[in-house]
Amino acid sequence: MLSPTDPLDAKPRSTPVPDGVPAGRRVSPGCPERPPGPCAPPGLEEALSSLGLEGEREYAGDIFAEVMVCRALPRRALPRAVTPEMRALVVDWLVQVHEYLGLAGDTLYLAVHLLDSYLGAGRVRLHRLQLLGVACLFVACKMEECVLPEPASLCLLGDGSFSRAELLCAERRILSRLDFRLHHPGPLLCLGLLAALARSGPQVLLLATYFLELSLLEAEAAGWEPGRRAAAALSLAHRVLHGAGSGPEPALYSRAELGPVEPCMVRAALRGPAPGLAAIFLKYARPQRQGTSLAAARLLRHPPAGPP
């Protein structure tokens, strides 16, 4: 067993500076200068109200710009010791821990974002990958939850592979590596806004949420903007349920921009409960979620006819 001060990575490295950012300026991974925000679409205030944000109607345009224009992480290869399959195993385990603890949906997306940010900023010891994942979840809980899980409980869920002291040390290293820049408007909020704007029904929203969560397993998804991932999930859900040509026309992203994102979600949905990657499929197969994963696989294999 390593000591509590054993580092997550083999050799600490400074955070790379994205292209186009002046030298000497401190930036967070994936958070370069924000581009100009888009114009608020019609019906945005009503969409916010439907999400329980009536008090923020005055700031509708600012909220839309903040959420939908958040950039993706820079496309960087995973550390040499970490393969996409290893990353997916850790994310699948985080999904199980997240569901067991009954945490908010945004907590899971932020935890995976922090994990990808850390992996993109330097090397990581392979045997510390699970510790890194649960430490990212612990940090995300402090950002999103009202009641925090006890570190001892997280250590117990890790089957004793790390101690409380190691978890807290990993938390400090994450905060230091990411320069305490933890805010990230996740794709789940983007999906809620887009679904409300499109007046999508509850079945479409549930299926889109499933597709969106499946994208967490894919390492390439970290290189897609949260808004684009959400728009792709919503567009795919409309087509799967109602056939080709149904659903709202994409407003912020063209069909060509959504094209590379959707196949990733389709592959994951058709993969089913693969060994080590079954958590999301089984989670959405339960009656509480209307057997969404089972229905999605069936409809993807036998799509309905589109509107005449």
Automatic annotation (TrEMBL):
Start and end residues of each stretch annotated as Disordered: 1-41
Domain Cyclin C-terminal: 185-303
Domain Cyclin-like: 92-176
Bias (Pro residues) ranges: 32-41
Entries under SMART domains matching the protein: CYCLIN, Cyclin_C
Pfam families found in the cross-reference section: Cyclin_C (PF02984), Cyclin_N (PF00134)
Domain of life: Eukaryota
UniProt keywords, alphabetically: Cyclin
Family listed: Belongs to the cyclin family.
The protein's name: Cyclin-P isoform X2
Gene source species: Balaenoptera acutorostrata
Gene: CCNP
